[in-house]
Amino acid sequence: MREDLLYHIWKFRKFDSQGLKTTEGEPLQIIHPGFLNENSGPDFFNSRLEIGGQQWAGNVEIHIKASDWYVHRHECDPAYDNVILHVVWEHDAEIYRKDESAIPVMVVKDLIDSTILENYRLLLEKKPQKINCEKEFSGFSDFQIQHWLERLYFERLEEKSKAILEVWNRTGNDWEATLFIFLAKTFGLNQNGTAFSDIAHSLDFKILQKNSGDLLKLEALLLGQANLIDSEDTYALELKKEYEFLKRKYALNNEHLAKPQFFRLRPDNFPSIRLAQLAALYNNKRKLFKDIEITYSKDDLSNIFELEPSEYWQNHYNFGKPHSTRKKKLTKSFIDLLLINCIIPVKYAYNLAGYPQDLEQIQELISSISAEANAVVDIFNFLKPNIAQNAMESQALVHLKKRYCDKNGCMRCELGTSLLNKSPKIH
């Protein structure tokens, strides 16, 4: 038995509610079970009950064993003083508040349909190859899946927005600087995202704005802070000289910054190329966020990222290693990645901060982008072919796998909980 199942049972009243009584024999009526608390404190808040003919409003705490109250030291935490009911699987101890008044107890062990318990056991105790409900997944209706994926996508945006708003607060509520930091992280991809983010944090964004329009200086700032100007060819020496001047002028420090990695990267994703492209972007867009703020069309947003780095990079992937001339524009797939992982989350965070954005247009925007191809999407496509039709759905599937499936969070998942009452039992 796990507490997440008990949360589900209490929240949706999956038990025989006729003639409910506390362990003291008092009649119990559940007017409203309350709302699940995702943070610290009692498990459900704002519950409304009638116990022994008297109405109560307060919190409900749920445990496998009643004695867990003392194991978790709730008797020492004033947050639990307003608990009006203790819901337990096993009543192995009497529980008292700090003022020594007894807390009413409801035991659910003998009230639950055995089908729910057996289905829950089978769902979590078997050893899946991919996810717990892999044998049942193809049986979920398209409507059921799409409804859940839409909710998961916005849950993912909420999660990403927390990190964005934290940076926004640290920048003194500067959206241009915040966008630059998250764009840099996205340009760095998985391998160099942290390194690029650290580089962006190390630069006062106003320095970039002051040097906008001078591509040599912007490349010197970004590549210099990244410790990547390590060649003796003519252009590298020019950048190195410029960087040393800017370093003294703005009192820059790059000694603590990790050098971005080239290992196992395709040349188009070399950090030297990506930073040169980022420099080209800010060479043309001193106030990029202002354009992002008012734009919802995928085509219009993609046009913002139609850029080319300086001439040197047309025949170099790294310093001192020339190749035949080849334009280094951002590809459509890379621009889609920027929209998915940076632009849309920043727009959503902007809305959460109190600056209205059209959420319907944001949903239309993410839905207009092709579904991503990755290992997680492959898993779900194997279980139910063509499940991800666009980027909103592929992002939602990534969130589902990482935040629910990998953590056995079936009781928090609409699909998982729908299996509990299924008859015949899941196999």
From TrEMBL:
Pfam families: DUF2851. It comes from the Bacteria. InterPro entries: DUF2851 (IPR021272). This is DUF2851 domain-containing protein. It comes from Christiangramia salexigens.
